[in-house]
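Slide 14.
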Amino acid sequence: MRYFDVPGAQLVAADVERLWRFRLRFVRLKPEVDPPVDLEKFHALLVSATTVYWGENHAGDICGMLMSKQFDWEHRGQRRKGLLAEYAFVDPAYRGTTTAMVALLKASARMLWRLRRPEVWLGSVGYLQSCVAATRYMGEVHYLGDPGLPDEAQSFMQHLLHHANVTPLQDGRVVMRTIPPTPSAGWMRRHGSSDATRRYLARNPAWQEGFGLVVAMRMGLRSMVRSAPIFSRRMAAAQAPAGD
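Slide 15: predicted structure.
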């Protein structure tokens, strides 16, 4: 596997289109969305990113991607650093593998190093599967519009909306140009009854129609330590003999 870590402003059009096509393997555009318009919007967000990460196999095929955008924000008179992370997709063949875990840890460490912070607020806009995964790996996750939302998280997500390429609604949901895949039967067996799934659907029951939620979480050493045993269990399960 080869890894690429490129400032968004230095991306060439050919790589943007390859990443766009890779993204469309995991989501489909709404019928009213014109593909060239979506590519143009995708291009604009990627080139505005602080960094775009992706991995390729030996054949040169993209196997995973993530973009991050660093921005300044202010809360109660104090200047803060925040991160937007979007377009996190991993080829199914690499999910739960050491390769994927190492790539994600490398990208996370680089984001923290660039910000010179041991812990920062990280935000994204996600559908059901990605938000449930974030809850599992990152710990405490906040949604825009949550009752009793901490003031700091609310402030961060309001600033985040200026950098994410979405249209906010009054109830905290956002309009997205894509429709996510339906969760597999296996995914629903594992996660359908979880608190994270119930909580997401309570906030966003129409997620299948292309409505997502703005999500915020703290990323730092604590979240990485929390994630390590979860990654380890997933890898052990993926590598166990079929009879185990």
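Speaker note: The longest strand covers residues 62-75.
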